[in-house]
Design brief:
Elements: E1 7-11, H1 16-29, E2 35-39, H2 58-80, E3 85-90, E4 97-100, H3 102-107, E5 117-120, H4 121-131, E6 146-147, E7 157-160, E8 163-165, E9 169-170, E10 174-178, H5 182-192
Parallel strand pairs: 1-2, 1-3
Antiparallel strand pairs: 3-10, 4-5, 6-9, 7-8
Helix pairs in contact: 2-5
Amino acid sequence: MIQIKKGYYINLNYRVDRREKIEIQLKKVGLDGIVERFSAVDGNSKFGQSVKCLPHTIEWYSVAKAALSSHRAVIQKAKEQNLENIMILEDDCLFYDRQYTSEYIKAHNFINWPEGLTVNSMDTINAALEQLENFPDWEIPFLGCTILPLEKNIPINLVAPNLGKINSAISCHAYVVNNNAYDRLLDWSLKELNQPVFNCYRDWE
């Protein structure tokens, strides 16, 4: 099984509430010895902590840039530490158990998805990491994401029991980056820092 030996959760200094919640979860699922806190870049600093970021406003772009800068800084740190891979979490991600009913599977147009599948976050992650060994060139497995485009159901092509191949997605609240993707992702994110992109690797191919 592919081993994840290091991870970071991204957290703003003043969001102590989120820090406490994510650390409770990390301890519960056994990741507290692997994942540690990374101080996030603050995009709200010049607007105030309670600012509401409406899409495509100056505040929104500032927060978007800060979010991408935070993720990029974690990846840069992983490269500098010569880590084989890195788990990256945001401080509001959730680990949970869920049973996928036949109605849910049909509604989301999942392909080859076993009916009644019960998903435990860490069991699924560990199984996926084991299956990932069959894909030696793996780069960025998402532990959760929103599949694009949003306006229609997109089939998930299962390439292994716990691995699905998708073409486009957003959300970077929980994912892993392999060391073979560090440079490419650092280059890509640097180009995107001046673009209106918020927590999004949607153009990664």
